[in-house]
Design a protein that fits this description.
9 helices; five-stranded mixed barrel; two-stranded antiparallel ribbon; disordered N terminus
Length: about 325
């Protein structure tokens, strides 16, 4: 936190039936965020209690303190109106992809958008005559066969991939313009499988696709969202009365948020999954309907309060 300028104000407000509260304002962050930052900085170099390091994230937590963001990205997000965790949760995916079905490599056809899982059996990289243009070529195999994969202008991947590295790849099979009668997957989305039992963020699920936010691409946003939702408090603040949610059979707020960002298929058949995916991409899933109803409910309540306030002043 070196280099952060602190503008601290103390505001005392007496409240009925309670002692005076000390409210801390630190560049718009909550007292909980400030306390966590202060304790971690004070005890830097010491082993901190898990209760401090694992403080639950709330919707009021400043985005600066979320995993994967930090001060620079928080300034960029603030320019887009995203200042806390609640604002970030409102940034929902604009579409979803079904990445639940892995395909055997031997069944792949040119032109298909596929999800495969395999192991690097060989790799080689070279620079072309064109300055600054490099190619990394992998051969990825599973139990059924092997596929050629190429990455362009990503030389750092030579230090990432090795023979035996296990990967999940998602992309389109295309005709290789550099080799005759050969299909290749070019610049696919890639995930290294370090722990196969751990849930994958980018594959093996219904995958959310976010619009780019500044320099945050959809893959980075997906990882940030996954970490945020995993660390959220169990119950989120809910604007809807409990009786109304039950009466209309609406999802609880926490469940709706989870289903908006990382939905799960209920159906097992291909037809059921296609139907659920269509509802998600059309904004008609139960989670989307719950969000829409909440926004309309808050709008109606606001209009009603403004009307009553106007009548009170007229009288």
């Amino acid at each position: 936190m070196t280099g952060v300028k602190v503008n601290l104000k103390r505001i005392w407000k007496p409240e009925a039936g309670s002692r005076k509260k000390f409210q801390c304002m630190l560049l718009g962050c909550s007292f909980g965020d400030f306390f966590r930052m202060l304790v971690i900085r004070f005890y830097s170099g010491f082993r901190l209690p898990a209760s401090i390091l694992n403080m639950a994230t709330t919707t009021d937590t400043s985005v600066q303190f979320l995993k994967g963001i930090g001060p620079r990205r928080s300034e960029m997000l603030a320019a887009h109106g995203i200042r806390n965790a609640g604002d970030l949760l409102d940034y929902i995916p604009f579409r979803y992809e079904d990445r639940t079905q892995f395909r055997p490599i031997k069944t792949l056809q040119e032109g298909e958008l596929v999800l495969i899982r395999g192991e690097v059996s060989s790799l080689g990289g070279f620079d072309t005559r064109r300055r600054g243009f490099s190619i990394l070529e992998l051969l990825v195999r599973d139990g059924s066969g092997s596929a050629k994969v190429k990455f362009f202008n990503q030389p750092y991947l030579r230090r990432v991939f090795h023979v035996g590295t296990k990967l999940v790849l998602y992309g389109q099979m295309k005709k290789d313009p550099y080799a005759r009668n050969s299909a290749v997957m070019m610049n696919p989305e890639c995930e290294i499988l370090e722990d196969e039992e751990r849930d994958s963020v980018h594959s093996g699920r219904v995958t959310p696709i976010y619009r780019r936010l500044g320099d945050l691409r959809t893959r980075t946003l997906r990882q940030i969202m996954f970490s945020l939702i995993s660390g959220l408090s169990t119950e989120l603040p809910d604007a809807l009365p409990v009786y109304l949610s039950r009466q209309l059979h609406l999802l609880p707020k926490s469940r709706a948020v989870q289903q908006l960002h990382f939905p799960e298929f209920k159906g097992t058949s291909l037809q059921d999954r296609e139907k659920e995916l269509s509802l998600l991409n059309g904004g008609l899933s139960p989670a989307h309907k719950r969000l829409i109803f909440e926004e309309l409910f808050q709008l109606q309540v606001g209009i009603r309060m403004a009307r009553e306030n106007r009548v009170r002043h007229v009288k």
